[in-house]
Amino acid sequence: LVLGVLVSGSGTNLQAVIDAVKAGSLNAKIAVVVSNIATAKGLDRAAAAGIPTVVLDHKAYANRAAFDAAVVEVLRERGVSCVVLAGFMRIVTSTLLDAFPHRVVNIHPSLLPAFPGVDAQAQAFAYGVRVTGCTVHLVDSGTDTGPILAQATVPVLEGDDVAALRARILQKEHELLPAVLQWIAEGRLEVVSGEAGTRPRVRIL
Ligand code: GRF
Questions:
Q1: Model ipTM over 0.90
Q2: Distance between CA 6 and CA 4 in Å, rounded?
Q3: Structural domains of the chain in order of their starting residue, each with its CATH number
Q4: Which ligand 1 atom is the nearest neighbour of the CA of 170?
Q5: What pTM value is reported for the model?
Q6: Active-site amino acid positions
């Protein structure tokens, strides 16, 4: 499995993927890390691991599709077969999705469909749920709406604040994302289109 990882920030999920590859629990190669933010710490993590990095400033492109076309070009050049959004804070368009059908994966810090969008941990905390978690899913044209691959639960504990909850969820993310990528590496993913009017689902073989 040849991965292209897209990041905008600290890149701790990227780090978890790097570590899993190094440890041999994820049979993949990270061919390139792309960021829309030149100062993203994720780029330093990639460089430290000897992974090529590319910065594409979204502000330099006329629209989302033009930016995505540039991203696709970089990913194709590097032979990427699966794209991982690991804290990539841009909405992606059909330009990216059509280039990698069923092979764009996102990690989201809630149990979808609860709390989509930004600051899912703060949304969950504010709502007062007792259990939240994280979701790894295939990306479709909606925001955090694609077929779910895996979820892990995380309790909200007495005395938590948003920061503590965020950290507890992040730990789970770091386990779940490399595990799901390994399923993909093993070819165990099957997207099942349900009956008319139902959502496509994923079967793990
Ligand atoms: C994670 O919480 C991820 O679920 C969300 O953005 C955050 C990225 O964190 N999409 P990091 O950059 O991997 O540390």
A1: yes
A2: 7
A3: 2-204 (3.40.50.170)
A4: 2
A5: 0.96
A6: 108
